[in-house]
């Protein structure tokens, strides 16, 4: 089965992990510190990133750093993985779903603005498929609401919009380093933010809420072993093995990005002109890192195409089921039909294989199977 996504690991990645295994630090060591600094630099922010154990953990940490809690509302897109919403719900927030832009699948600024209330604490957009959100418009909506703009950039590390790197577009940005993403640490993620206080709260939350710095202690006359927990947190620490792998992967991020664009271009060329297909949108000024190739088939035969490709050994996927369709949200009273553009997008979407080691021959095979199915 040709997978829809997979990691790309080379000898340098393996050597980087072996180096850690031969050293003194398996966790909380120098590799983590170095990796966080490099991610912060890639994101174009002043503070090093806060590395964590997964993209889900990054979202949980980010919402905690934004001081989301009971009584707050978080506006987000339903066309995303569950964690964009659930991690805010875990902190007690009410999740408010707003519809998407029909072309990119990203959160629509006008739809988000229509959902703003006095309780809005965060507006969370997702870089669907790797295409950056409309950050200027969403930033204005968030600023007018007195809220944070959070960019869930699980799909788009290394991307940019109008020359501004993903990581500097929003108040807070989260990354994922899952194996199918643009670079991997095995599992892992990171949080970056423009405000140093937000970064500090994120770092404290991912470290069990514990502090050792003398200026933050209430008791100052104990020994060097002393630590305190002024507020709750969780252990979301990335380890040095993962950080070493991530650091090695960063040296190939530009290569990964270029190859993902080549694959996208090849799909675009091969599938052009088929009337029942919608190819991924690419807005002016956006420089995506294509995590997905989200093809849409508009004649109602998405299930048939999915089964046809799977039957031919092509591991296609669907991204994503609208979050509020899930039983948890249905039981809370969320109804189907509330975000019709997102639901229409879901009903048409099928993700084709997309990863750096995909060969041109693999792409051409997928294209030919789709063209044959469509009678093109």
UniProtKB/TrEMBL annotation:
> Does the record bear Cell membrane in its keywords?
no
Q: Which GO terms describe its biological process?
A: polysaccharide biosynthetic process
On whether rRNA-binding is a keyword of this UniProt record, the answer is: no
Cofactor(s), by name:
pyridoxal 5'-phosphate
- Which CDD domains does the record cross-reference, listed alphabetically? AHBA_syn (cd00616)
Q: N6-(pyridoxal phosphate)lysine modification sites? A: 181
So which domain of life are we looking at?
Bacteria
Q: Name one Pfam family in it.
A: DegT_DnrJ_EryC1
Active site located where? 181
Q: Which UniProt keywords apply?
A: Aminotransferase, Pyridoxal phosphate, Transferase
Q: Which GO terms describe its molecular function?
A: pyridoxal phosphate binding; transaminase activity
Q: Which family is this sequence assigned to?
A: Belongs to the DegT/DnrJ/EryC1 family.
The entry's protein name is: Aminotransferase class V-fold PLP-dependent enzyme
Q: Which organism encodes this protein? A: Dermacoccus abyssi
At the highest ranks, the source species' classification is: Bacteria, Bacillati, Actinomycetota, Actinomycetes, Micrococcales
């Amino acid at each position: 089965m040709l997978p829809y996504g997979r990691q790309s690991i080379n000898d340098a990645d393996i050597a980087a992990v072996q180096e850690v295994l031969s050293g003194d630090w398996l966790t909380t060591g120098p590799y983590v510190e170095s990796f966080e600094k490099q991610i912060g630099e890639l994101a174009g922010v002043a503070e090093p990133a806060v590395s964590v154990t997964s993209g889900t953990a990054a979202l949980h940490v980010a919402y905690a750093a934004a001081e989301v809690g009971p009584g707050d509302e978080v506006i987000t897109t339903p066309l995303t993985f569950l964690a964009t919403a659930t991690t805010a719900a875990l902190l007690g927030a009410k999740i408010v779903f707003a519809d998407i832009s029909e072309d990119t699948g990203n959160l629509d600024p006008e739809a988000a603005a229509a959902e703003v209330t006095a309780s809005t604490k965060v507006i969370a957009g997702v870089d669907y498929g790797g295409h950056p959100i409309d950050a200027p418009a969403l930033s204005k909506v968030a600023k007018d609401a007195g809220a944070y703009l959070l960019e869930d950039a699980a799909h788009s590390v290394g991307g940019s919009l109008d020359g501004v790197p993903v990581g500097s577009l929003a108040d807070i940005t989260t990354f994922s380093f899952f194996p199918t993403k643009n670079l991997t640490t095995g599992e892992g993620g990171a949080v970056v933010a423009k405000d140093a206080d937000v970064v500090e709260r994120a770092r404290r939350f991912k470290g069990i809420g514990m502090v050792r710095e003398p200026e933050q202690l209430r008791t100052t006359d104990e020994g060097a072993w002393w630590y305190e927990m002024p507020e709750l947190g969780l252990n979301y620490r990335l380890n040095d093995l993962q950080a070493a792998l991530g650091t090695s992967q960063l040296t190939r991020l530009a290569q990964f990005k270029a190859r993902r664009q080549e694959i996208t271009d090849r799909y675009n060329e091969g599938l052009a002109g088929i009337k029942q297909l919608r190819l991924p949108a690419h807005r002016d000024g956006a420089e995506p890192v294509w995590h997905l190739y989200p093809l849409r088939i508009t004649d109602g035969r998405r299930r048939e195409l999915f089964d046809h490709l799977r039957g031919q050994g092509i591991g296609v996927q669907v991204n994503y089921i609208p979050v509020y369709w899930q039983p948890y949200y249905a039981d809370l009273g969320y109804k189907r039909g509330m975000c019709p553009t997102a639901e229409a997008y879901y009903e048409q979407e099928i993700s084709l294989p997309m990863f750096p080691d995909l060969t041109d021959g693999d792409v051409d095979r997928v294209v030919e199977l789709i063209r044959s199915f469509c009678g093109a």
